[in-house]
Amino acid sequence: MSMKDIYSDTSFDAIMLKYGLALEMLETELKVMIRNYEYTSKTTPVDHLKSRLKTKESIIKKLHKKGYEINNYNIMNHVHDIIGVRIVCSFLPDVYEIANLIKSNNKLVIKEEKDYIKNPKDSGYVSYHLIVLVPINLDGKEIKIEAEIQIRTMAMDFWASLDHKIRYKFRELPEEVEKEVYNSSLDIRALDEKMYHLNEIAKKYKEEI
């Protein structure tokens, strides 16, 4: 299937409709779950939540990169992040709290999880990833759609955003830049730890008042 064909293919549009509905379902489920948690725990672990659907260009680019033919079967079976949700938390323990909250949800099926916080990528990237299956009903039938959820702290999100912008400028990152990017990720991890401990100290002072 060519680039021209995929833009005019109604079945591709039907696939994207399914993903759009699944994203709406997932957003609603996550927001309700987080608000309920905030109400019962009296804490606000999540700073903000972002979501997106991959564009047709991005989907085609990813299939090309993986060496797959561009067709609807490969879209649904080999592109696992058409739906992307990013949950940005205040502190490091909040990341695991939210991850556990999602894993305990009886509507979402956990297909895969990767802890890049305990096991960072070689680039220095840190985050917690979940691939979940989101149930939607179409024509009286339930189908499950894949979605990727990234959970990270504000510091991790800051680093990842700038890392992406730096790497975008190069086909291959120069060794000097690669080293400095990695070192900055170590600084970010140290900052996360420091801010968490400062927050714990602040909480003790508040309890004493």
CATH fourth-tier homologous superfamily of the largest domain: Beta Polymerase, domain 2
The outline comes out as flat
Strand arrangement in the largest pleated sheet: 1-2-5-4-3
Rounded Rg: 20 Å
Main sheet characteristics: 5 strands, mixed
CATH class category label of the largest domain: Alpha Beta
Distance between the termini: 67 Å
What is the mean pLDDT? Answer: 91
Amount of helix: 55-70%
Number of domains: 2
> Low-confidence segments, ≥5 residues, pLDDT <50?
1-8
Number of strands: 5
Strand composition percent: 15-25%
How does this model look, in words?
The protein has 209 residues and is of the alpha+beta class. It has 2 domains: 3-155, 2-Layer Sandwich (Beta Polymerase, domain 2); 162-208. Helices cover 56% and strands 22% of the residues. It has helices spanning 3-8, 10-41, 56-66, 72-78, 92-103, 154-168, 175-208, and strands spanning 46-53, 83-89, 109-115, 128-138, 141-153. The chain has a 5-stranded mixed sheet. Helix 6 runs antiparallel to helix 7 (175-208). The N and C termini lie far apart (67 Å).
Q: What's the short version?
A:
This protein has 209 residues and is α+β, with helices and mostly antiparallel strands. The protein is 56% helix and 22% strand.
Write the layout of secondary structure elements.
Elements: H1 3-8, H2 10-41, E1 46-53, H3 56-66, H4 72-78, E2 83-89, H5 92-103, E3 109-115, E4 128-138, E5 141-153, H6 154-168, H7 175-208
Parallel strand pairs: 2-5
Antiparallel strand pairs: 1-2, 3-4, 4-5
